[in-house]
Write a structure and sequence with these properties.
Number of helices: 10
Number of strands: 0
Distance between the termini: 69 Å
Order of helices and strands: HHHHHHHHHH
Radius of gyration: 33 Å
Helix content: 55-70%
Number of domains: 3
Largest sheet: none
Length: about 210
């Protein structure tokens, strides 16, 4: 049985305790997982950092080569597919922390004006005055079945008698007066219309 790759291990046990990791994997793999865990945390805290900054940081922390650093960067990126969402969550949390720090500093100075502004900003940002939205019961929504058809009556339009003949007649008349329309390039659709729509002859007979 082949050994799991480091990325598979990271996806399954990135935040598993070291003791449990050592019981399941080789020590070199455990050290690698812990390094990846550390850098994932660093990425979330430094969500606007560039690749070069990541490489410099991990090389400085762990003394690894640049090739290994870039390999770890690739793994970390695959572990954070929703990094942008994590970044927004981090910035929301950081904003609240800054507002609360401002409030506490103003409170120590007895600066009621700044306290009021910080409290107002906190309430507005977190929408405290807005009632909690009721969750939409999506599981109760029944999907309507739709079936393709060439019968216009399904949308309230009466079928035109001899529609195929009228189309041919109009095509001939318009083609004679506007010959350029007959030379328009187009690509044939790669599908079997008979499998999608009913036989037009059968439909025309049913409408008579």
């Amino acid at each position: 049985m082949p050994l799991p790759s480091i990325i598979d291990i990271a996806r399954a046990d990135l935040y598993t305790q070291r003791e449990d990791l050592e019981a399941k994997y080789a020590i070199t793999q455990v050290d690698h997982i812990l390094r990846l865990r550390d850098m994932v945390t660093w990425c979330i805290s430094n969500c606007d950092a560039k690749d070069r900054q990541f490489v410099d940081e991990i090389m400085q922390r762990y003394g690894i080569s640049k090739v290994t650093a870039y390999a770890d960067l690739k793994i970390v990126k695959s572990l954070l597919p929703n990094l942008s969402e994590a970044s927004r969550d981090y910035h929301r949390w950081r904003y609240n922390e800054m507002i609360l720090e401002t409030y506490q500093m103003a409170k120590k100075r007895k600066d009621t004006k700044t306290m009021e502004k910080a409290a107002t900003s906190y309430a507005k940002y977190n929408r405290i005055d807005v009632e909690d939205e009721t969750a939409v019961p999506y599981h109760m929504i029944v999907v309507q079945p739709f079936f393709p058809t060439t019968d216009p009556r399904v949308v309230g339009i009466n079928p035109v008698p001899n529609i195929d003949e009228r189309i041919k007649k109009l095509t001939k008349e318009l083609g004679a007066s506007n010959p350029d329309t007959l030379n328009i390039e187009y690509e044939e659709a790669d599908m079997n219309f008979e499998e999608i729509f009913d036989d037009p002859k059968e439909e025309s007979e049913s409408t008579k």
